[in-house]
Amino acid sequence: MSYPIELIRHSLAHVMAAAVQKLHPDVKFAGGPAIENGFYYDFDTDYRFSEEDFEKIEKEMRELIKSNGRFEQKIVDLDEAKKIFADQPYKMEWLNEYDAAGEKLSIYTFRDFTDLCRGPHVESSKDLPRDGFKIRSVAGAYWKGDSKNKMLQRIYVDAFESKDALDAFLKMQEEAAKRDHRKIGPALGLFFFDERSPGVPYYMPAGWTVYRELYNFWSEYHEKHGYLEFRSPLMNKKELYETSGHWDHYKDSMFVFKEDDNNVFALAPMSCPNSIVAYQHEPRSYHDLPWRMADADMLYRYENSGALNGLFRTYEFNQDDAHIFISEDMIEDEYNRIIDIIQYYYKLFDMKYFIKLSTRPDDFMGDIETWNKAETILKKILVNRFGNNGFGIKEKDGAFYGPKLDIQMVDSLGREWQTGTIQLDFQLPRNFNCVYIDKDGNKKTPILIHRTVYGSLGRFMGLMLEHLAGKLPVWLSPVHAVIIPISDRCKVYADSIAEKLQNVEIKTATAGLRIKKDYSSESMQKKIRNAQLKQIPYMIIVGDKELESQTISVRRRDGKQEFNVQLDDFIESLKSKIKNRDLDI
Ligand SMILES: [Zn+2]
Ligand SMILES: [Zn+2]
């Protein structure tokens, strides 16, 4: 019988606990859920687990699996449970809590190990893979995740249905570590972090060039598609966020400071409230709709310092945001337009993606009827576009003001990332009393769509670095080409080539083509290696032969080289790759 992978992972967690119990009989057990790519179990013992224990534990687990032990469930009453777990303080705490909540007390026994657990599990350990798991690490973890509680030892295990699946995962992990943007970014001179500004990156000139290219492209593309870009305050008085509801729902994630008790300010954590203020600045009629306001303003969100993660999670970031005010009959058309834009972007970067609908969360604002209506409309759009099974659902993961479509990007390593989002909002326009005058001269409340394509510019840049392993397309490259003369005799010729390239008429986020000269005294091989390490797409190599024939040699960063190239032909090809934003060099 085949079981869902989560069930296999969780059953393996029991097997690991049983193995640890055999090796360290005094250990106290906390809990062991399945997680993405595996499972963990939390233990409390004076013994310090280290990498040297991993093999021993794995070996013991294999022995246990081989024994074809069954997972036997029993429902017990509180007295019996208390006897069974008399020397297990963490289980005692759970079972008292479960009992108080009126839950049945379910225990599972696998070999000599009995755990308090609702299940389900596999029937017998013969259903578990003997070599589909590998202990990854051991780390401290507080009991119930609360730093006031005791620190336990959490053993993380990667676990899959077979050895092949595990090996594929481990190989992917290895590749992912090589592509880690936190390593690649500083190595390419794009950005760095300093401990005096945690969560806020320094973008160096090369990185700021990439950033500006991403931004300019976004800005122009949206202008062409009917969006109006604007700029609003980065800090507001708290009253604005009280009206929007963020003060109640989001305050813990905001940077708040005050001038005095009557003047409390917050750095903008999102640009919706400011977009609404701009909407209300002038009277609006149905002629103005859809009113598409785009901004990539700086936003500030507080995170636990442990959640900060390179460019993926920062305190400060530019969200490529837009707020679209529409009437109800425009929802479907506007959503289709937005999905078109998203498809265009993701194709450009050769990213696969799929869409998930996030539904009403527990702390929702507004009435259930409106929510149901909104969710129904979004489902219909998704079914029309992607078919009944062409999208996912994330229950209760909507924003507090409305349901949303989240774009899940799948990168070249098969990893999933949430990037863009399209949120439908019936609430905020009501909170702010937004109106427009309809065809019949009546006041109506508009509906608001919040949407991003990149998500955040910095995060997207980090994702691209990992997705493309640092090999950015030409249009995003901080240097388009480096000129390398073979000898001093060719420098004058090299200068003339550089001048011609620098004077090419082309629109980029910087002043035309980005050309470098490498006249250093390094060896030819070293210069080529340096350019490759910086992922510069083209090396223009000129020696006596090129000087004589007035041509150039073009070496690409992937090692391919072309001789006798006319400079004009190279310029034309470079221009076209930049203009079309080709992914290949
Ligand atoms: Zn269990
Ligand atoms: Zn918004």
Q: Given the structure, what is the number of helices?
A: 18
Can you tell me the number of structural domains? Answer: 3
Query: What's the number of extended β-strand segments?
Result: 30
What structural category arises from helix and sheet content?
alpha+beta
CATH architectural label of the largest domain:
2-Layer Sandwich
How would you sum up this structure, described in words?
With 585 residues, this protein is of the alpha+beta class. The protein folds into three domains: 5-175, Threonyl-trna Synthetase, Chain A, domain 2 (Threonyl-tRNA Synthetase, Chain A, domain 2), CATH 3.30.980; 208-232 and 269-467, BirA Bifunctional Protein, domain 2; 474-579, Anticodon-binding domain (Rossmann fold). It is built from 18 helices and 30 strands. The chain has an eight-stranded mixed sheet with strand order 11-15-18-25-22-21-19-20, with helices on both faces. Helix 6 packs across helix 14 and helix 11 (331-348) packs across helix 12. The longest helix has 20 residues, at 205-224. The chain is globular and about 90 Å long. The chain binds zinc ion (2 copies). Residues 270, 272, 323, 450 line the site of one zinc ion.
Task: Give a summary of the structure in a few sentences.
The chain is an alpha+beta fold. The chain folds into three domains: 5-175, Threonyl-tRNA Synthetase, Chain A, domain 2, CATH 3.30.980; 208-232 and 269-467, BirA Bifunctional Protein, domain 2, CATH 3.30.930.10; 474-579, Anticodon-binding domain (Rossmann fold, 3-Layer(aba) Sandwich). Helices cover 36% and strands 24% of the residues.
